[in-house]
Amino acid sequence: MKIALSVLLSLSSIAYAAPETFVLDANHTKPRFSYSHFGYSNQESRFDTLSGSLTLDRVAKTGSVNVSIDTTSVNTGSSLFNGHIQGEDFFDTAKYPTITYKSSMFKFEGDKLVAVEGDLTIKGITKAVTLTVTSTLCMPHPMMKKEACGANATAKIKRSDFNMSKYVPYVADEITLTIPVESIKQ
Questions:
Q1: Which of 27, 110, 151, 183 could pair with 136 as two cysteines, CB 3.0-4.6 Å apart?
Q2: Nearest to 43, CA basis, from 34, 51, 53, 52
Q3: CATH number attached to the domain at 18-185
Q4: Half-sphere exposure (CA, 13 Å, Cβ side) for 95?
Q5: Residues of the chain with pLDDT > 70: what percent?
């Protein structure tokens, strides 16, 4: 009887540790990027359209994320500059309509997710990028009545690493990426 109970308890803990899949909420997940403009100010722009998913196993402390950003949805606040930044010197959206990020590892400190390591692809160039994660929270969504997870993630990258170095050093080479994430369990 004791052996059967032990087996049953170990199987129930395995089921509890199963990975959960969440779909990114495109209405509340708007990646932003900021940079110094001639040293006068820091400019911020965002992408309005993306898709992706998050898989999280909170017990095993593992997970993955897969995001695809529509580069034609770049929003600088100026239609003239939107067109300019979609050109060949920058995102070249006609040739490269998406930016992707695919994780390779989640890093936890205790129960808290603190970083995501993965590959960022812009203009067909892939570089390893670590996202620093803050403000993580998983709980039932009060309106959708489903489990939801959210976080803020940031990283610094160089435009020149992705063949987008026009106007460097006047327009900064270093870009700060900020990704507020909200996702709903499927």
A1: 151
A2: 34
A3: 2.40.128.110
A4: 10
A5: 91
Place of tokens 């695919």: 102
In the block, tokens 């580069």 appear at 71
Q: How far apart are CA 180 and CA 25, in angstroms?
A: 10
- Domain ranges across the chain: 18-185
pTM (two decimals):
0.88
**Contact (CB, 8 A) for 68 and 98:** yes
Q: What tens digit of pLDDT does each residue of 91-118 get?
A: 999 999 999 999 999 999 998 999 999 9
Residue with tokens 């017990």: 59
Mean pLDDT calculated for residue range 157-179: 96
d(CA 160, CA 109): 32
Tokens representing 72 are 């034609």
